[in-house]
Every structure is written in structure tokens, then in C-alpha cells.
Design a protein that fits this description.
The complex is a heterodimer of chains A (342) and B (338). By secondary structure, chain A is α/β, with parallel strands linked by helices. Chain A has ten helices and twelve strands. Classes of the chains: A alpha/beta (342), B alpha/beta (338).
């Protein structure tokens, strides 16, 4: 296997030691939509991401969990630079993504790469996968000749656990798990510092999900890459993540070490999420009533109060902010659940 | 090879034996997409069919429903006995009369199965009027009762909505209300919660369990998620590569799975709270699920199985029944000669 750090172009300075690879500060993204109704054109604002701050350290895996519509994919797209924020900043190695243009943006972009949910729709069906990876290698290393690009491509394909002969295959000739491995090889072709993975295993067969999870963790152990993982399978998230942030209607409601957040949640929404997931052999499902409120009409005060059994009058008037309740563990709730053992 | 008749007392509501779905090949001959699928659904029982994509789980239940079409490219063989009647023997009209009355079905994508330009109330009314012919207006009380029954709030308003005005979870409740219109004996649900969020999934699973408890309805649930099966099923049918690998009571599934595929699948799942944080590598199953055209000889799981013996790659093991459970594995059954 390879040590990818050795391929980093010398003109790109590394961040200060210990500094976060990515820092997200008060990120906001609103979408305005217009709808034609009987009363004319109605404008509404979707508050997809509504003030999120987090940082991902070097070699760390930060997981974001939440239901559909909570803004997790919008957040990922902003970090990847595919969407611009309405307010707030995303700092990659201390540099604001939105503030740079041209050559400096081109040198910054390869440091953040993406692994998508469905590798079939992110690969060109009529391009051999070796060429798809080679294109990224060639773009990243402009000075390299063909033989060197080919050698690096082969190296990447073997790094993700595939036979180098697979370079000649078309995406349709590979299984879902193999395609996701190609997607991962493509992401690592630019020697990234952060890989944003949006539901990286949920489109795969159950019996190959573990293979891909192992691969992602092996690559991190070898290269010290950081991950921002978005997912909904809580057991898998607890397994791969160091820290987890729970997103509800565009805001983080709880952040902390993965095992602590999921085994001793302090926010009532996290607790409901954990209890709703059917576990092994557990038969009584705790049922949260109601649907997630819409990001078009965010409730006043605490946005979870409309579904929360512990809500009090104050929850409708004031909005709680994240407050530290334990080491590295914070929740945004006026009446948090008790910590176990006092 | 057939389920043990003495094991469950009263005759089961649905008994499927040696079901085979094959596809006509252009050059002549057939290839099997589903073979040797056998299981039973008792009255008031919730049975889950669990399998990965391509395992034949959806095809099997569609064959049971008679939805694969007659004279099409797919050929169905085997015994399907429902409530004492032999389904393949029925005429097309008789089967059609059965569907939506005694057997109802709920699909994965509720939005794709509702008419986008018809109000919810009118769609549910169609189902009600099919069972008890009456004017649309007369059907409304029953429509509202059904919508209330599946836990929808503000049913008057919901009945006037179009599908796109409701959330996915609410649409799935509407689908279940439509399926319940005829008070079916058997509800077949194909991945009913896979498109939904976990908190909404928990609500729908709770609703299905309540339907069984209150009305004694039998439910055949298809899912790829073992934890969903564990949460609500009485017994589980594990399918792999178009075959039944194992049939087992849910209580035996964890810890006492007999088929190496079931055991390996359970082992490969990340466990909540097993260890703090990054708990090392998962026990992955190597290789991939075989394609229908490239089935290995012998047992289809043998190339990925860590317990495989010589015979596994030569002869396909039969499904051996004992009591209410069954397994198709040479190693698990102690391997007497074929």
C-alpha cells in the first residue's frame, strides 16, 4: 500500500500542527422558493442549514446524523465548495473557500474530496474506470507523463483492494461494492486531507457494507485523512466516527464523542433517534409522534419542541444554544436528559 | 423438503412450496431467478423475508400475488396455497378478485404508487367502493375511519390533499389504509419503510404490529434490514441468491442462526455500544453476491463461506425442515450423502 502524503505538491503548505483540517463557522444556507398558489406567487424561505459550527481535526472522523430534510446534504455540498453559503465560513487549512479564486482555489480544492452514495451515478458509464481515475491523477499532477499516471492509477486501484485488471472494466461490469471502491480510489487520487462521504455504504448490499467500512478505516489509519461522514445507520456511524453531531432542521442539537452521544444522549431528539432504530432482538420500539417540522416553517424557540415530550413553556419562547454538559459533549436543550449515574 | 405439517397445529394461511421463477432465454432454455423457495405464514403471524438485492425476495412475493403476469417472459412453478385454495389453479378473474380483498399489498415507494392528480380521499374511496359498491359520497365515512385508523391526524384535511402535499410517512399510512379497506387476511408489504426516516419507520412498524394484534391479520414483510425483521417478525425467512437459505423463529435468529450466511451477515453488522468509539475492524464477508446468470455450482454461498467443505461446491444442499425451522446447508445439517 502507498503513503499518499508523499504525493502532495511541495507548493501547498500544510496547516499548523494540531489545527483542524476544516473549520465550519456559523454556516447558514437558505433557499428561496416561489410557488404559484391561488393567492398569487408565494415566496418561502427554506432554512436548510441555519447556523452550524463544527471542526474536523486531522485524522478524525466526524459524523453527521439526522433525518431527511435536516440539511445534512446541503452542509456537505457547501464543505465541498459545490454550493456557496448564505452566511458563515468554511475554512480549509485556515483558508476561506469562498474568498479565494483561480490558482489558489485550484490548489485548495483537491484537499477536499467526495465519496458519493451511489457510485453508479457518479461514474461515466462509457468510460473505463481506469481512465476515470487517470483523469483525476493527470489533472492533479500536470507535469506527469503517461507512464507515471498509469502507474499511479494502478497503485490507487490496488490500494482499494481491487485487482489492477479492473482498470479496463466499465462501471456496469462491476458490482456495487467494486464501484464504490473505484469511487473511493478516485477521491484519494488527489491526496486529500478531508474526504466528505455522503451515505457511503447505504446503497450497497448488506453483506458488502462491512468491506467498504473496513476499507475506509484502513485508508485513514495509513494516510491520516480526515472524514466528514453523513449517514443514518447509527450502529455503523458509532463504529466509524470519533465524534458525532446530530442535525435537526438545519441546526446541531447535540455534539460529542460518538459512543457517548449514542449511548447516553442528553438531547431528547437524539434519544428518540437512538430508540427508534430497531436494534438486535429488541422488540419494543419507542415511537416519536409526528413528523419532522418543515424547514420552510421552523417552529419558534427550540425547533424540536413540537415533537418533544419534555417541552415546557420556555421552549417556545427562547432558542437554546449548544451548552457543554460533559467533556467535549454539548447539547442544545433547556431541560436535557439526565446523564446516567447522576 | 416440505414444511412439517404437525409443527404449527392449524393449517397455515399461506403455504409456498418449491416455488420457482424462471426466465425464458432468447437462445432457448430457461434460467432460474428463484428456485426452491418454501415457507409458511400462519394466521395472525408476522413473517419477514430478508435478503439482499438480487436474492429474489421481491420476485417471490410478487409470484405469490400473481403479479408476474401470465404468458410473460417469467414462468412461475410450485405450490402456492392460500386459505385452502391453490392459487396457480385459479383463473385470472378469480385471482383478480382475491387481490385487494383477501390479499393486499403495500409497496416501497408510496408516492410512486399513488395517483398524483387525485385527492387522497378519492383514492381511498376507490378501494372502499371496490369492496362495497356505493356512491363516492356514501363511502366517505369509511374513508375517514380508515385514515383515522392508521393514525393520520386531521383526516378531513388529509382526505382533501393531493399526495405531494403529504410527507412520505403520511403517504405510506395512506397506502396501508387503502390496503386495509377490504379487511384482508394477508397483508404483503414490500420494503414498506425503506424510503422512510427511522423515527417514521418506528411508527409504521408499530402500526403494522397493531394491525396484527387488533385484527388478527397475517403480514408478510419483505426487507433487506435484519434489524427490522428482528423488531417485529415472529419468524424470518433468509434468502440468498434466489433460494431460501434458512427459515427460523426470530427468537432463534440472533445467536442461534444455523446457516453460515445468516451467521456471517449478523456478525458483519456493526453493533451499537459494543466498544467505545472505533472498535476495530468489522468481520466482513468476502466476495460479492453472484449474478443470476453466473451461479456457482453447488451451494450459491459456498465461494464466500468460511465453513465450506468439498461437497458444498458440487451439490446444492436441499432445504431440510425440522419443526418450524429449516436450513439449506450441508455443514449445518451434518451432511448425509445426497
Amino acid at each position: 500500500m502507498t503513503h499518499l502524503a508523499g504525493h502532495r505538491p511541495p507548493d501547498v503548505p500544510a496547516g499548523p500542527p494540531g489545527a483542524p483540517v476544516v473549520e465550519i463557522q456559523d454556516l447558514v444556507r437558505h433557499f428561496t422558493s416561489r410557488r404559484l398558489t391561488g393567492r398569487g406567487i408565494e415566496k418561502s424561505v427554506v432554512r436548510a442549514v441555519d447556523g452550524v459550527s463544527l471542526s474536523v481535526g486531522k485524522g478524525e472522523t466526524f459524523g453527521i446524523v439526522g433525518e431527511s430534510g435536516c440539511g445534512k446534504t446541503t452542509l456537505a455540498r457547501i464543505v465541498l465548495g459545490l454550493l456557496s453559503p448564505s452566511a458563515g465560513r468554511v475554512l480549509v487549512d485556515g483558508v476561506d473557500l469562498a474568498a479565494v479564486r483561480g490558482a489558489s482555489l485550484r490548489s485548495l480544492r483537491p484537499r477536499v474530496q467526495a465519496v458519493f452514495q451511489d457510485p453508479y451515478s457518479s461514474l461515466d458509464p462509457r468510460m473505463r474506470v481506469g481512465r476515470a481515475i487517470g483523469e483525476v491523477v493527470a489533472y492533479h499532477h500536470r507535469a506527469w507523463d503517461r507512464a507515471r499516471i498509469r502507474a499511479r492509477t494502478t497503485e490507487l486501484i490496488e490500494m482499494v483492494g481491487l485487482d489492477s485488471s479492473k482498470a479496463d472494466a466499465y462501471p456496469g461490469q462491476l458490482s456495487g461494492g467494486q464501484r464504490q471502491r473505484i469511487g473511493i480510489a478516485k477521491a484519494f487520487a488527489t491526496d486529500p486531507e478531508l474526504v466528505v462521504a455522503d451515505e457511503p455504504v447505504s446503497a450497497l448490499d448488506v453483506s458488502v457494507q462491512a468491506q467498504v467500512i473496513n476499507l475506509l478505516m484502513d485508508l485513514q489509519a495509513e494516510n491520516g485523512v480526515s472524514y466528514l461522514v453523513i449517514g443514518h445507520g447509527l450502529a455503523a456511524m458509532e463504529h466509524i466516527c470519533d465524534r458525532i453531531g446530530v442535525l435537526y432542521l438545519g441546526k446541531l442539537v447535540e455534539v460529542g464523542p460518538a459512543s457517548v452521544v449514542l449511548s447516553a444522549p442528553r438531547h431528547h431528539y437524539t434519544a428518540a433517534l437512538v430508540e427508534s432504530a430497531p436494534g438486535d432482538g429488541r422488540r419494543e420500539l419507542s415511537v416519536l409522534t409526528g413528523e419532522p417540522a418543515s424547514a420552510r416553517a421552523v417552529p419558534s424557540g427550540c425547533r424540536f419542541r413540537t415533537r418533544c415530550a419534555a417541552a415546557q413553556a420556555r421552549c417556545a419562547d427562547d432558542e437554546p444554544s449548544l451548552a457543554e454538559l460533559g467533556p467535549g459533549h454539548s447539547a442544545a436543550c433547556f431541560y436535557p436528559r439526565l446523564a446516567p449515574n447522576g | 423438503m416440505t414444511p412439517d405439517p404437525g409443527a404449527r397445529g392449524a393449517s397455515p394461511l399461506l403455504a409456498v412450496r418449491a416455488l420457482r421463477v424462471s426466465q425464458e432465454r432468447p437462445g432457448g432454455g430457461r434460467r432460474d431467478l428463484v428456485r426452491e423457495v418454501s415457507f409458511e405464514v400462519g394466521r395472525g403471524e408476522i413473517v419477514c423475508v430478508v435478503g439482499e438485492s438480487g436474492s429474489g425476495k421481491s420476485l417471490s412475493v410478487k409470484a405469490v400475488m400473481g403479479l408476474l403476469g401470465d404468458g410473460g417472459p417469467l414462468h412461475v412453478a410450485g405450490d402456492i396455497e392460500f386459505d385452502g385454495r391453490d392459487l396457480p389453479e385459479l383463473t385470472i378473474e378469480q385471482r383478480r378478485a382475491l387481490r385487494g380483498r383477501d390479499i393486499a399489498m403495500v409497496f416501497q415507494e408510496p408516492l410512486a404508487n399513488l395517483d398524483p392528480v387525485m385527492r387522497i380521499g378519492a383514492q381511498v374511496a376507490e378501494c372502499v367502493r371496490r369492496v362495497e359498491p356505493q356512491r363516492p359520497r356514501q363511502a366517505m365515512p369509511r374513508v375517514l375511519e380508515l385514515l383515522r385508523h392508521v393514525g393520520l391526524p386531521d383526516v378531513q384535511r388529509v382526505a382533501r390533499c393531493y399526495p405531494h402535499e403529504l410527507s412520505g410517512g403520511m403517504c405510506q399510512r395512506v397506502m396501508i389504509a387503502m390496503a386495509l379497506a377490504a379487511r384482508p387476511k394477508l397483508l404483503i408489504a414490500d420494503e414498506p419503510t425503506s424510503a422512510l426516516d427511522v423515527t417514521v419507520q418506528a411508527q409504521i412498524l408499530d402500526l403494522l404490529t397493531r394491525m396484527r394484534d387488533d385484527e388478527g391479520m397475517s403480514i408478510l414483510l419483505v426487507t433487506h434490514d435484519l434489524s427490522v425483521a428482528a423488531a417485529i417478525a415472529d419468524s424470518v425467512i433468509v434468502m440468498y441468491a434466489g433460494r431460501t437459505a434458512e427459515v427460523t423463529p426470530t427468537s432463534e435468529l440472533f445467536g442461534r442462526a444455523r446457516h453460515p450466511y445468516t451467521a456471517a451477515l449478523l456478525r458483519s453488522l456493526p453493533q451499537r455500544g459494543r466498544a467505545a468509539g472505533k472498535s476495530g475492524r468489522l468481520v466482513a464477508i468476502g466476495g460479492t453476491v453472484p449474478e443470476p446468470g453466473q451461479m456457482p455450482p453447488g451451494c450459491a454461498f459456498a465461494p464466500r463461506c468460511d465453513q465450506a467443505i468439498d461437497r458444498c461446491s458440487q451439490h446444492d444442499p436441499p432445504l431440510e425442515w425440522s419443526g418450524g425451522s429449516a436450513v439449506a446447508c450441508w455443514v449445518a445439517t451434518g451432511g448425509e450423502q445426497p
